[in-house]
Write a structure and sequence with these properties.
Layout lengths: L2 H25 L6 H29 L3 H10 L4 E11 L1 E2 L4 E6 L6 E2 L1 E4 L8 H5 L2 E2 L10 E5 L3 H10 L8 H9 L13 E14 L8 E12 L2 H13 L6 E4 L1 H6 L1 E2 L4 E2 L9
Parallel strand pairs: 1-9
Antiparallel strand pairs: 1-5, 1-7, 2-3, 3-4, 3-10, 6-7, 8-9, 11-12
Helix pairs in contact: 1-2, 1-3
Length: 275
């Protein structure tokens, strides 16, 4: 059982015992001593109050994730879950309504600029969550790993806090667009972006990896706000060559169909999240 499951169980036991005693005190027992009236009743009322407040705090802290957290903590605590925590960038030319995608480095498809967040500082997910990182030697800080389901509630709360991890989006933008010379360093030395939503897929049944039962994927979606120079450069890029081996400008309809170029070229399924 996970940490939150144990807390909930503790509150539940206190609530049941306290409520049972109060019922017995007022409806069953007779000839009540002062010890019952002054001490035990006070303890029982405090027990009911503290357990109700405890339930509320846990439910409120997880919000819409509460039932998933409960499931992880009580019903499937030791199931193996693959976790990926990442961000995607919507780069859209408003005049043409075209989206800029780049070719994936690991899968032969076009997809949004972005990738998994990285750990920063000294946080050790192996010790804290018994995590098994799914990272190559060059990217040991990448936030994609296997973990027992009981730790998922803690991971979600930690991720939402923004502590001990990347919060910016520049690294992937620079690596995938500037460093590859798709766009110029002169016009894209900095970018402005706004987080527009978070897309999460929690405890999706999958078995892509050994012994894995579930997938949990969380994407923060950002919209890049292009200035005039950046817009003109991308418009020129699209006019000169809208599809190359490195990038492509595609429509919303093509993203929804997950293909373009007369259905010859694949678009990653997760690209739909930037629409």
């Amino acid at each position: 059982m996970g940490k939150e499951g144990k807390r909930l169980l503790g509150y539940f036991i206190i609530l049941i015992v306290s409520t049972f005693y109060l019922f017995a005190r007022y409806f069953v027992l007779t000839n009540i001593s002062d010890f019952h009236k002054e001490t035990l009743v006070g303890l029982a009322v405090a027990g009911v109050t503290s357990s109700v407040v405890g339930f509320y705090e846990i439910i409120n802290s997880y919000g819409r994730y509460f039932w998933k957290a409960l499931n992880c903590s009580i019903f499937i605590p030791n199931k193996k879950v693959y976790v990926s925590l990442s961000y995607l960038l919507r780069i859209k030319l408003h005049g043409s309504e075209k989206y800029l995608l780049v070719r994936g480095s690991k899968i032969d498809q076009y997809q949004p600029v972005g990738g998994v967040y990285k750990l920063v500082g000294n946080k050790c997910i192996i010790k804290e969550w018994e995590a098994e990182p799914k990272s190559d030697k060059k990217n040991q800080k990448d936030l994609r790993f296997f973990v027992k389901a009981k730790y998922l509630p803690q991971i979600i709360k930690w991720f939402k806090s923004g502590k001990d991890r990347e919060v910016g989006i520049w690294r992937e933008f620079f690596e995938e667009l500037v460093e590859t010379k798709i766009v110029s360093k002169k016009n894209f030395s900095t970018i402005n972006a706004e987080q527009i939503k978070t897309v999460d897929k929690l405890l999706i049944k999958e078995n892509r990896f050994k012994d894995e039962t579930y997938h949990t994927l969380i994407y923060n979606i950002f919209s890049v706000e292009l200035n005039n120079k950046q817009t003109k450069e991308l418009e020129k890029l699209m006019t000169s060559n809208s599809i190359t081996n490195d990038y492509a400008f595609v429509t919303r309809d093509e993203i929804e169909k997950e293909c373009f170029n007369n259905s010859k070229t694949r678009i990653g399924q997760h690209t739909k999240h930037i629409i």
